[in-house]
Structure formats: C-alpha cells, structure tokens
Amino acid sequence: MIKLAPRTIDVWVVLPERVLLLDIAGPIEVLRRANVEQDALKFDVHYAGSKPRVMSSVGIPLADIAPLPASLPDGAMIVVPGSADKIAFTADPGETAVRQDEREIVEWLRAAVRPDTR
Fold first, then answer.
1. What is the DSSP string of 40-70?
2. Which among 5, 41, 45, 72 could bridge 76 via Cys, Cβ 3.0 to 4.6 Å?
C-alpha cells in the first residue's frame, strides 16, 4: 500500500488588539486535535497581526506575533477572532492605536483574501 504524504493547510490567525482568547482557543483546539487524530490533512497554524504584541480582552499580553504576510499560500485559511470594547483588569490602550490596528487588519484582509482563501 502506498502511503500518501499528508496535505497541509496553512491557517493564519489574525490577532487584533483586545482579542477574545476563546475565539482563538476554540477553533485552534479543533485543528490541533485534528492533527493528532489523523494524518491525511494537517493544519499549520500561524499567528499574525499588525503589531508584534497585543493585549487580550482579559489583560493577558500576547507577544512574538508575526507580521501580516504580504501574501497567503494557495488554499490558506484565515481565522479572525473577535475583540472586546474594553480590556478587563488593566488600563485600556488609547482608542487611536486600537482603531489604527483595526484599519491595518481590514486593509490586509482586502489585499490578501482571494477566492481560494477560506
């Protein structure tokens, strides 16, 4: 029996300021589990954003975030988690910085998403 190499799908998780951790953990845990349970299809998850560090909605900082890529590989998936109006338990960052972060992500999505992107 010939064993075929697994097909890999690149998954890009976009991390905005005030990101909701549950919106990351839920979908990505499903993909992690799929990688453990089967070999036919693998998910290669990347975390990217307009800034190298953002604060989550519950005040946990997320760091070492890759820049938004100039282009996406064929068949890529994008996960865009939600964000909260305010950050709990910490000083809220300025609205101007948050709005700029959102604008950069939206502009990137407009440029990066193609018909084969999910």
1. SEEEEEEEEESSS-EE-TTS-EE--PEEPPS
2. 72
